[in-house]
């Protein structure tokens, strides 16, 4: 694992720890980077004694994203971890929001979603309160419709 991925994963783990979750569901797009980030999180979280429920993947384009969204909310997790790119999150995030169970404020994401266009692309219901880690380990979040990096 590169130092940059290590810093990103370390921050994601720190953000997850802040919620003290009993159960975490993990979702990812199908790009190699997204799959790798999700796998790294699952391995490290479980090695620390954390419980992962569902691990769900979804395509960048789909008719509805209903099946992966239902799997993401299965078991009523305390928190979600997401590794995706903006184009895939556009549909999946909206479908998750429509479940009435998922909330972006209870979701931690990797750097693939940290683009300024994300709130406009995916919509407020799929982004407001979403936060995560940049490749260098700094925090990013969506606040009032804007991506803010710290």
UniProtKB/TrEMBL annotation:
InterPro entries in the cross-refs: Peripla_BP_I (IPR028082)
Organism superkingdom: Bacteria
Listed name of the protein: Uncharacterized protein
């Amino acid at each position: 694992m590169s130092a940059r991925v290590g810093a990103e994963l370390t921050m994601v783990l720190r953000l997850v720890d802040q919620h003290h979750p009993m159960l975490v569901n993990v979702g990812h797009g199908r790009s190699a980077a997204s799959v790798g980030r999700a796998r790294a999180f699952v391995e490290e979280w479980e090695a620390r004694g954390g419980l992962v429920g569902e691990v769900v993947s979804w395509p960048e384009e789909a008719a509805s994203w209903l099946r992966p969204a239902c799997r993401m909310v299965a078991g009523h997790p305390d928190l979600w971890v997401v590794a995706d790119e903006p184009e895939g999150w556009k549909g999946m995030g909206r479908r998750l929001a429509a479940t009435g169970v998922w909330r972006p404020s209870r979701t931690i994401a990797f750097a693939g979603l940290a683009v300024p266009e994300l709130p406009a692309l995916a919509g407020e219901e799929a982004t407001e309160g979403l936060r995560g880690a940049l490749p260098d380990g700094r925090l990013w979040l969506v606040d009032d419709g804007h991506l803010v990096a710290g």
